[in-house]
Every structure is written in C-alpha cells, then in structure tokens.
Amino acid sequence: MKKLKIVFMGTPDFAVGILDTINKNKYEIAAVITAPDKPSGRGQKVSISAVKAYALANNLHILQPINLKNEDFLSELKSLNANLQIVVAFRMLPDAVWKMPKLGTFNLHASLLPEYRGAAPINWAIINGELKTGVTTFFIDDKIDTGAIILKKTTEIGTTEIVGQLHDRLMLLGSTAVLETLSLIENEKATPSIQTESKVLKTAYKLNKDNCKIDWSKTGAEIYNLIRGLNPYPAAWTYFIDGENKMNVKLFDVAFTEQKHLFEAGKIVVTKKEIWIYTLDGYMDVKALQMPGKRKMDAKELLNGWNFSDEIKVN
Questions:
Q1: Does residue 89 form part of some domain?
Q2: Cα(135)–Cα(181) distance, rounded to whole angstroms?
Q3: b/e for 9-21, b at 16 or more Cβ within 10 A?
Q4: What is the C-alpha to C-alpha distance for residues 170 and 230, in angstroms, rounded to an integer?
Q5: Structural domain for 77, as ranges
C-alpha cells in the first residue's frame, strides 16, 4: 500500500464537503490551495473562499497563488513533496502543476463524463431536463475535463428537485467517490479508462446573465427546468413590465401546470395571494421571487405590500 501525501485544490462550498471527508478519514494533507482573498459586496469587504475558511478552522497549510505558473509558488509546491493532488471546483492547472506529483493529479467533476464538461454541470443537467447525473473522478490532462476516468457514481434527478438540493447530494456522492478513488490509488488498483468522444456531447457552459434570462417563447417544462436549475443560485430572471416600470425580477420556487388557455405567453395574473405567469402551454405559479432592491420573499408576503396593475406582463 502506498502512503499518500495530498495537496488539495478547491474554492467553493462543494469542495469543502470533499476536503472535510478527506481530512476526517485521516489522510495526510500537505497543503490546501485555494483562490486569493478578494473584495466583494457593496462595502468591498475582503472575503475568503469557503475552502480557506475550512482550512483555517482545521489548521491546514494554505497557499493562495495569484499565478499558478509563478516560480516561487512552483518551488513551494514542490517542496511539499506531495505524491498526489486532488482538484475539486478549482481552475485549469498548467502542466507544471498537474504533472508534479508522482501518483498524478485527479479531479472530481459533478457529471457523468464525458457529458457536461465545463463550469456548471449541476445546473445544466437540471436545465436540460436530465433524469440522472452523477460524479466522475479522472486524472487531469492538458484539456478541460477530458482525462482518463477512474470511476463514476450515478444518481437520479427528482422531477421537482432544485439545483441547491442536487448540489448537496452530489457533494455527498462525490465524497464517497473520492474516498474510493484514494483507496484504488493507494492500493495500486486504479485502472483509468480513456474518455469516449462524440460530436453530440452536452456542455456545461459558464452561467451568465444572458443564459439565466427566461425565454417565455419556450414550453412551460423548459422554463420550469431553467428556474429550478438556477434555484437558489444564481437564479433565473425576467423583466416584469408594469406600465412605465420595467423591473428585473428573480424567480425561485415555482410550480408548472400544463393547461390550455387563451392568454398570451408572458401574461401575469395576480390575486391577493398568487402570481401566475402564463406560458405557451400552461401557467407558472410563482411561490417565491425577488423584486429589485428587495430580499427574496414568498408571493403571498410580497402581495401584502406590493400592488400590480391588471396590465402587468413579463418580457
């Protein structure tokens, strides 16, 4: 059995769950590499990554390089004498970094590779209406999410599941996958397989303002999948048009009912307790939303203090 000395690389909450599992299973962690601190929010207060917060709380050695090709960083990384590196939700590594450890560098990716390579695999699996997804561990190579696969674990996606729920389940599944991968490597039983290529692979594009905007010309099911695939973060959005007011509104919890109707897609019907937005083939019952400059709230709470006209619609 090989004695493992690990460098862990990651930044967000998803990576914390994996790091915690490695740490609690008594593997030697030589260092944790995460994003540099940065100012955020209106006050530009300096914030630290979720991984750094965990590393500080658990007395783990931390590196925060701005440039992964910097000679001083590479020298410090080499001096750690780690023989394995694990990457979870970090950035693309230069050759000098991922080739450094003797046993290689493996990544945990939250999809069933080769499907959904890219930055937002959990979101896009739901947005595209997939019924299953999973996690994959693979040895990193010089491209993004293309390396030889060590193992996969699969799970079903609930038809009403939101991305926040799936994120947390995949973090647990990923923890199991990483532990099994570590066992294979330390026992010299890992047999990685080359990824199969296809022209019809789905991609997990980086999320931005444009691809998070709701297109009301799509079917209700497609809109529903977009909303739950972005709930709670970064949230699907649309414009509420009410007279001269054009408001950027985020939609969170919704329920879709397929139904024939005579309304134009995008028409909003408001009662004392409900907000319905009509689609081509039904209507979206908005349970929770966020108006500009306001906190997220449920529809009933919003309607207690907000008046809409009868002409309100979305765009």
A1: yes
A2: 12
A3: bbbbbbbbbbbeb
A4: 16
A5: 5-186
Position 8, amino acid: F
Residues 81 and 35 in one domain: yes
Q: So what's the pLDDT on residue 13? A: 96
Q: What is the CATH number of the domain that holds 124?
A: 3.40.50.170
Q: Distance between CA atoms of 194 and 306, rounded to whole angstroms?
A: 57
Q: How far is CA 172 from CA 40, 41, 159, in A?
A: 29, 30, 20
Cα-atom radius of gyration of the chain, to the nearest Å?
Answer: 23
Q: Tens digits of per-residue pLDDT, 188-228?
A: 999 999 998 888 999 999 999 999 999 999 999 999 999 99
Which DSSP helix (H) or strand (E) runs through 179? helix 163-186
Whichever domain contains 257, its CATH number is 3.10.25.10
Query: CA-CA distance, 224 to 218, in Å (whole number)?
Result: 10
Residue 293's φ and ψ, nearest 5 degrees, are 75, 5
Domain assignment of residue 201, yes or no: no
Evaluate whether 220 touches 258 at the Cβ level (below 8 Å).
Answer: yes
Q: Indicate the angle between helix axes 13-24 and 50-57, nearest 10 degrees.
A: 30
245/241 Cα distance (integer angstroms): 6
Q: In this structure, are 225 and 176 located in the same domain?
A: no
What is the overall mean pLDDT for the chain?
96
pLDDT digits (tens, 9 = 90+) for 40-73: 777 778 899 999 999 999 999 999 999 999 999 9
Q: Is-contact 148 192, C-beta < 8 A?
A: yes
Q: What amino acid occupies position 209? A: K
At 117 the pLDDT is 97
123: nearest Cα among 230, 217, 9: 230
* Boundary residue ending a domain (128, 162, 186): 186
Give CA torsion, residues 8, 53, 13, 71, to 10 deg: -40
